[in-house]
Amino acid sequence: MKILVTGGAGFIGSHTVVELTNAGYEPVIIDNFNNSEKTVLKGLRRILKRPVKYYEKDCNDVKALEQICKKENIEGVIHFAAYKAVGESVEKPLKYYENNIGSTLKVLEVMLKLGIKNLVFSSSCTVYGQPDEIPVTEDTPRKPAASPYGNTKTICEDILRDTITAGNPLKIIALRYFNPIGAHPSANIGELPRGVPSNLVPFITQTAIGIRQKLTVFGNDYNTSDGTNVRDFIHVVDLAKAHVSALKLLATQQDNYYNVFNVGTGKGNTVLEIIKAFEKVNKLKLNYEIGPRRPGDVEKIYGSVEKSEKVMGWKTEKTLEDSVRDAWRWEKKIAKNKK
């Protein structure tokens, strides 16, 4: 079964390509490399021992999207391709609405035209905002998003639901991710942030290796065990495997199916717990300081994954220690390759 992976050279996309291949699917990547590097393709080749088929195209290009799907006899789509920097989305909202929502509409248009039925959509726990109760479940009311980026995920979920409600012969699952971290254990692929990382773990690893002078922890006066924010951090390989589970579930469903699933560990860790785990596992001391709170940060969020376990038959296998060990191994590999 050939699966089109939009944004397949990105952090989560590339790891999903590996897990799709391991599960017997044939992934085909479409990526414009605006926010990813072609070196990822070499990393994938090293892991899989063969090249991965890819097209350097933008999935906002309907004609190219349609041609690729026809040529490759695509039977399913995993749609990752989206801009994802929260801060930039606040500064450039129209860019985010046009790209993230536009590309989703175009993917749906091509799927309906060509009779491609299976879609796994990359959503986010940002749709919950700052929840009134945790852990959040898939039935937790969504709240107004804190950023245009988050709002694009909410709007795209609504578009998917409305498409199914209208009676279209599609089968769709939206996966609401929590915080993916880590890297492939081989250190051949991992997270490649451009410029200053906006995510915690890449900032930790870049500080540890000397690219960043110090790490700032944004606030230690929250209502949490140590005063720092709580998040659900999931190993990217576990997250990638959730997409395989979603495709397998879609294969058992009748047309006109829509469902959403939380994809996380089911528990939260504070920022300081992540830092301490990194120091302990990798036998390092990090240069970090406590700074003021950062505007827009949610105090704490983690999700129930009971539905994912029961309905998709998926749950995480890797530990926080695995995540920070693999992330550090990957950072050292990047540094070695630059020499």
Automatic annotation (TrEMBL):
One of its GO terms (cellular component) is cytosol. The keyword NAD applies. It catalyses: UDP-alpha-D-glucose = UDP-alpha-D-galactose. GO terms for biological process: galactose metabolic process. Pathway: Carbohydrate metabolism; galactose metabolism. Residues 4-326 form the NAD(P)-binding domain. It is an enzyme of class 5 (isomerase). Gene3D superfamilies: NAD(P)-binding Rossmann-like Domain (3.40.50.720), UDP-galactose 4-epimerase, domain 1 (3.90.25.10). Keywords: Carbohydrate metabolism, Isomerase, NAD. The keyword NAD applies. Its cofactor is NAD(+). GO terms for molecular function: UDP-glucose 4-epimerase activity. Homodimer. This is UDP-glucose 4-epimerase. The lineage of its organism: Bacteria, Pseudomonadati, Bacteroidota, Cytophagia, Cytophagales. The gene is galE.
